[in-house]
Hints:
Pfam families: CMD. This is Carboxymuconolactone decarboxylase family protein. There is one protein chain. By secondary structure, the chain is mainly alpha-helical. The chain has two domains: about 10-55, no CATH class; about 60-165, AhpD-like, CATH 1.20.1290.10. The protein is about 65% helix and about 0% strand. Helix 3 (about 40-55) packs antiparallel against helix 9 (about 145-165), helix 4 packs across helix 6 and helix 4 (about 60-75) runs parallel beside helix 7 (about 110-125).
Amino acid sequence: MARLTAINPEVATGKTKELFNAIQGKLGVVPNMMRTMANSPAFLESYLNLSGALAGGTLGAKTGELIALAVSESNACDYCLSAHTYIGANLVKIKPETIEAARLGNATDAKTDGALKLAKTLVSKKGLLSDSDVEAAKLAGLNEGEIGEVVGHVALNILTNYFNNTAQTEIDFPAVKAHQLETV
């Protein structure tokens, strides 16, 4: 059962209604995560702004979704795994085997694999990377801007993972469960 209330778009007012209208216009629906984030319009708006900015980055939608899957698996966030599996498969057209590999931090091409390994390492080391961790990302073909974008995607997904795990947001996508909960 959800711990935080999802705001009904039909009764939203003010800034919340404005944000919901923009989300509805773009996605055709206001997902439960965003409805729940809307308890603080400032929080919802900051999530939307960071998400939108990263969407315009050089890594692209496919790599962004794959990073989201890797991070969500690491944080055992079933809501985000469900959302990004659906988005990846249906909107970005990522193959099921690629989605499954990404959850484990693996990809077939070196650059994407480097991005996913960097993302998993950032999560497991809580951002405290070694020189060799950064060098491995560079050797995989990521430039310094792309390394920064990976950090941004990881931060965005940790934000949503922690929020949804805290809120126990009701999953409104086909449900996907994490394989394992990483221990600290």
